[in-house]
Amino acid sequence: QVQLVESGGGLVQPGGSLRLSCAPSGSIFSRAAMSWYRQAPGKQREFVATIASGGTTNYADSVKGRFTISRDNAENTVYLQMNSLKPEDTADYYCTALGSWGPGTQVIVSA
User: Fold this and answer.
1) Confidence grade of residue 23 (pLDDT, cut at 50, 70, 90)
2) Residue 90 needs a FRET pair 20 to 30 A away by CA distance; which of 6, 11, 99, 108 works?
């Protein structure tokens, strides 16, 4: 089973940026699609972005143009660059691959 660990969350002002990282265990990373989801307080978990093994990406409409998902197969890491953050981006962000989920990292966007 893949083990995933997210990092990079924190408190940021509206309009600011954060970069989340996810480092999965195992040698399957380069062959696996990786995705980010988020769950805001009192809401259901929702899709944010995904990147295929070949690099094809897809985003939720709410983050298009502001968030960028990328992967570094050599470093065994997937990133989520989040720019122009809004208070509604406040949530716990989760990395997922092959049916496994990380514990999440909290992002708070507040003045």
Assistant:
1) confident
2) 99
Of 17, 43, 110, 29, give the one whose Cα is nearest residue 76. 29
DSSP assignment of the chain, as one string?
Answer: ---EEEE--EEE-TT--EEEEEEE-STTGGGS-EEEEEE-TTS--EEEEEE-TT--EEE-TTTTTTEEEEEETTTTEEEEEE-S--GGG-EEEEEEETTEE---EEEEE--
What distance in Å separates the CA atoms of residue 87 and residue 81, rounded to the nearest whole number?
16
Residue among 53, 61, 46 at smallest CA distance from 24: 53
Ranking 28-32, 33-37, 57-61 by mean pLDDT, the lowest is: 28-32
Please write the tens of the pLDDT for every residue from 33-55. Answer: 999 999 999 999 999 999 998 89
